[in-house]
Amino acid sequence: MADQPHIRETGRRALVTGGGVRVGRSISLALGEAGYRVAIQFRTSQGDASATVRDLKRMGGRPLACRADLAEPEQITAMFEEVDRQFGGIDLLVNNAAIFPHSDPLAVSPSDWDTVFRINARAPFLCAQQAARRMGPGSSIVNIADTGADEAWGGYVPYVASKAAVVSITKGLARAWAPEIRVNAVAPGPVLLPEADSGEEAEREAAKRTVLGRLGTPQDVAQAVLFLDRAPYVTGEVIRVDGGHHLK
Ligand SMILES: NC(=O)c1ccc[n+]([C@@H]2O[C@H](COP(=O)([O-])OP(=O)(O)OC[C@H]3O[C@@H](n4cnc5c(N)ncnc54)[C@H](OP(=O)(O)O)[C@@H]3O)[C@@H](O)[C@H]2O)c1
Question: From CA 74, how far away is CA 88, in angstroms rounded?
C-alpha cells in the first residue's frame, strides 16, 4: 500500500519547515498520508527534501520543496510567496526547523546567542506572521517546542531559552489570532538524539529519563501535530510528547 498511489487530498495545504529530515520528514509524510498538500522547506538538505517529495508523489500526493534560510526574513517572505503560487494559500504551518548547539554559557558570544534566537524563535514568529496573512478561518499553526523549555539545561541555555520563547509565542498568538487561527505547540522529549550524541549508551541513558522507559519516535511527534490541527476547540496548548519525562 505504501508505494501505491492512495493519497486522497482533503484540500488542506501545509508548510513544514525542516520538513525533509528526521522529525520534520515524519511530519511531512504523516500530513501527506492524511491528504494534505505539503510544502517542505529545506536550507541545505535538498537531497532529503527531494526524497520526501518523491515518496509523497509515489503515494499520489502533490508536494513541493522550497529552499529558504530561515535566518533571513526576505527568504521567509519569498518562501510563502512560492507556496501561494503553487498551492493558492495555506491552512497549516508547522514550525519545526531549529538548531541545537551545545555550549558552555561562559563561551556564548552575542552572535552565538543571536543565531539561535534568529532560527529557533524569530523565524517561527516571522513564518507565523506570513502564514496568518494568508490563512482563512479554521487554519492552524503548530510550533515544535521542547520539554527542555521549562527545565534547567546548563549546556544548552540559548536553545532552551529559545524554546521557552516558542511556548510564549504560541500562547500570545493563540490569543491574538483567535478565533480564526488556532496556535498550538508540541514539546517533544527524547525522540531522535542529535547525530553527534547518538549511540546505544546515549539512547539507554535518555530512555531512563522517561517513565515509559524508551525513546519516542518521530511518528509520535507527527501524530500530535495532526491531532492539534484537527482539534477545533484546542488553542494555546502545548502537548508534551516525552514518554512522561516531565514526571521524573
Ligand atoms: N530530535 C529530538 O529528539 C527532539 C527533541 C525535542 C525537540 N525537538 C525539536 O523538534 C524539531 C525537529 O528536531 P530534529 O532533531 O528533527 O531537527 P534537526 O534535524 O536538528 O533540524 C531540522 C532542520 O532544521 C533546519 N534548519 C536549521 N537551521 C536552519 C536555517 N537557518 N534555515 C532553515 N532551516 C534550518 C535544517 O535544515 P537543513 O538540513 O535543510 O539545513 C534541519 O534539517 C526541532 O524544533 C527540535 O528542537 C527534537
Answer: 20
Distance 208 CA to ligand 1 centre (A): 24
172-196 pLDDT per residue, tens: 999 999 999 999 999 999 999 988 8
The structural domain count of the chain equals 1
**Domain of residue 242, CATH code:** 3.40.50.720
Q: Indicate the Cα dihedral angle 219, 224, 225, 229, nearest 10°.
A: 140
Provide the pairing of β-strand 13-16 with 181-188: unpaired
- pLDDT tens, 31-73? 999 999 999 999 999 999 999 999 999 999 999 999 999 999 9
| Mutate which of 15, 21, 198, 205 for ligand 1 pocket (most atoms within 8 A of beta carbon) | 21
Distance from C-alpha of 12 to C-alpha of 18, rounded to nearest angstrom: 19
Query: CB-side exposure of 186: number of CA atoms within 13 Å?
Result: 29
The three-point CA angle 80-85-89 to 5° equals 65
